[in-house]
Amino acid sequence: MLTFRGGAAALLVALTGLFTLFTPTARAQDPAGVILNLDMTLSREGVLEVTERVTVPPGEQFTMSLPLRVQISEDSERRFAVTDIETTGPGTAQVAGDLFTIEAGPGESTFRYSVQNTVSDAEGSQVFRWFGVLNVDIAEIHATLISPSFEMGIVECLLGPIGSTRPCAQVRIEPDGVLYLDQTNLRKGESVDLTLQIPPGTVASNADISGPGDSPFAITGPVLVAFALLLAASAGLAGYIVWARRQTAAAEPAQPLVHAEGRTQFSSPAGLLPGEAGVLLDGHADTTDIAATVVDLAVRNYLWIGRIGETQWRMIRVNPADEQLRPYERAVYDALLPAGTHEVTVADLSAPGRLPIESLRHTMLTDAVERGAFIDPSRRRIPLWLGGALIVLGAGVTVAAALLSGHALVGIAIVIAGAALLAAQRFLPARTAYGRSLTGQVRGLQQGLEQVNSAQIPAGDRELVFSRGLPYMIVWSRADNWVRTFRDIDPSADDDPGLYWFGGFEGDRDLHRFAGHFPYFITAVEGVFSAR
Known about the structure:
Layout: H1 12-20, E1 35-42, E2 48-56, E3 62-67, E4 69-73, E5 76-79, E6 81-88, E7 92-96, E8 99-104, E9 107-116, E10 126-133, E11 138-146, E12 153-160, E13 166-167, E14 171-173, E15 179-186, E16 191-198, E17 208-210, H2 221-245, E18 257-260, E19 263-266, H3 274-282, H4 287-299, E20 303-308, E21 312-317, H5 327-336, E22 343-345, H6 346-349, H7 357-370, H8 377-380, H9 382-403, H10 409-425, H11 433-450, H12 459-475, H13 479-486, E23 502-503, H14 512-528
Parallel strand pairs: 1-11, 20-23
Antiparallel strand pairs: 1-2, 2-9, 3-8, 4-5, 5-17, 6-9, 7-8, 10-16, 11-15, 12-13, 12-16, 14-15, 18-19, 20-21, 21-22
């Protein structure tokens, strides 16, 4: 409806100001008091064009104030604008802040102005309503109103004190569609309540009303849809992350010992290497994984490790790197013994810059990606780029919506979606389905090695089984337990004194001294591969 009342919709404040806020400084002493003549036209643009003639008796002053910002509820307000002000005679009219003020001295003054933002719609019709309470005595009011439609009907016209009104005696609409209102001797405190109905779409709707539903950050239908989609997407993403991270195959203890033809050999599932197993377990290539690879290279006869006193060791080239080595193993081998180098001490390796530590880590991770165990890092960065793009897009949508169309919380929902992607990126699985299967096998191998007892193995095979299993136990920090399990074996039972890959204890008939010495060696090797 087109309503001229602050709480309803349209011209209430504009027209109420015309009838209710007059405050002359002295009351007329005879019927020839303040006389108002109002000619009003409601244009198709929804602008109320007013010509107001005020006649003030000698010795009196007239003041009218029309508020341009009107609080219509606790959290809503109506805004008007008055433009195109013209004045003739002794009166003045101006807009100052949120007030439109007319002042007139004795004599006749004419004011012309336009009231903007006066029209709003309702279902099925538009309603034009005047309502207000007179603050002063008015001798006479003569008003006319013309709208674009002659199909204007009087719904109600009431006069008198609020709660005790009477029907207007002199209000009519002529056949040509012009409304006439003539009233005399209106007293302070009386109200004027006029409601007219015109066909829907007669004038443009331009009311400027702000409230809880009009804020650009209000909760609207599009906002609810956006947040519903955000909630669904977040739940889906969280569900996927939980599902994917639980897809690692259940760890069944794997049997690391193969018995055949009276011999016992060590076997890792799917040919998994110690360094590779360490990367699969935690998704990182750390110093323990590299140190385990060094020991594995010695166990497989590419290196020989010799003791020099109690706290120093050397590594000697035994066999050159060949096609049996994986790329990351070759990188570790070449880092220890570059071309032309036959041996190196652990002290030499500790020199700053001697070892390309970050390059070795990168090579180990790249090897896992190339084998299909890990997702390519470039693919894992897609959520990072997408999350950043959503944050930028959401910020732009928020600003544009706040300035133009409302629904600014849609942009906030997009920003939250981007932030959620950035936060979720670190929890997205790094392993492929194949990688998760391998990880399950690594854990099964870990459990299987924990169950090995040296008594299960023929005396002549114990040294080799011990040596092949040791690098894996280094990876999951159980080397001490592994050495303790085998410390009573005789390393010369294979007719070769001492451990074949670690020198310094050739005369021993057990591994007791080696068990006390080895932790210092592995700690020193891990130390040289620590990032500096």
